[in-house]
Fold:
Amino acid sequence: MTTTIDKLFNVADFVTEEERAWQMKAREFAQTRIRPIIDQAFEDRRLPVELLPEVGELGAFGMYMHGYGLQGASSVAYGLVAMEFEAVDSGFRTALSVQGSLAMGAIYKFGSEEQKQQWLPAMGRGEAIGFFGLTEPQGGSDPNTMLTNARREGDEWVLNGKKRWIGLGTIAQVGVVWAKDQEGVVRGFVVPTDTPGFKATAIENKLSMRASLQTELELTDVRLPLDAMLPGAKGLSAPFKCLNEARYGIAWGVMGAARACLEVAIERAQTREVFGTPIGGKQLIQGQLADMFLEYQKGTLLALHLGRLKDAGNLSYGQISVGKLNNVREAIKIASNARSILGGDGITSDFPVMRHMANLESVRTYEGTDEVHQLVIGRELTGIAAFA
Structure:
């Protein structure tokens, strides 16, 4: 199973056989299981949750983690899986990220051995779904404004607060909630969703990422045992480490959306005739396609480079920001140009381009806006923080 673009630039030339096998397994799943239903799911504002156990069977949840029944695959292999999922829809790739990089990632990085044993095997199989509760209504890009709090009462923690734009909250069995303790230090807590006082409500009025599940959370005197706290997490650096795992996956994923849009544009250029000839025979169209391909190729190579750095333990926060900022930005441009080449048909659901365009606007915002990543890169270049 190859794509048109593979004939000119095939990432398989730069990855191991095992990594390629992961990519092709993910591509087959995405094209045969997700793609046939995704347009209707987008119309219905519904994440195809019935497919999540199959993702668990595929081994893709938390696939780069070791032990606990997880696959221990390379970061590059995970990136290739993210790319294939997002080639069909950003919403489904987001579910992969929320479950694996964020919810499982927090427990894997900072949890006790008991917490890991209790949750990671089931989450890896897709039998337990998780959320990652960081963002708040008043906070957005500034989690320092966190109002959710955890106070100690005897042998319990009591959590109160609200979270917004939390993936998978209404279908999750467990989640990691970030809250400030009585000293104002950010801590992570493992919260089973059947705990009294926990409430999750789906956000329904979305015009982007409609085939995903985003929620608002309310925690009202949610009582947890003392061992619900993640012992290894102290301060905002802990959730930021999880966010960087997700940002890495985005750098790969959006190149899948870009590839899908470019392929549609190429096919349209070959088959659509204007004034008696295919539009692909026009210099203007060929120039656009060439430029779109160049940015797709450069973005994929950048993601691959970041993956190799990550697997070697040498990937920095600034480098992740380069990948997220550049690749999302260029994927949006590729989608926009593809829509233009498709003409009026480009805005219809007969083609995936407008859906990708809408989704990518959300991807541009979550896990750090363009502006946040510009400031991260600027800090790396100058040594001066300019966030305030």
Notes: The mean pLDDT is 96. The beta strands are 130-133, 149-153, 156-167, 174-180, 186-192, 198-202, 214-225, 273-274, 277-278. Residues 5-124 form a domain with the Butyryl-Coa Dehydrogenase, subunit A; domain 1 fold (CATH 1.10.540.10). The chain has three domains: 5-124, 130-228, 237-382.
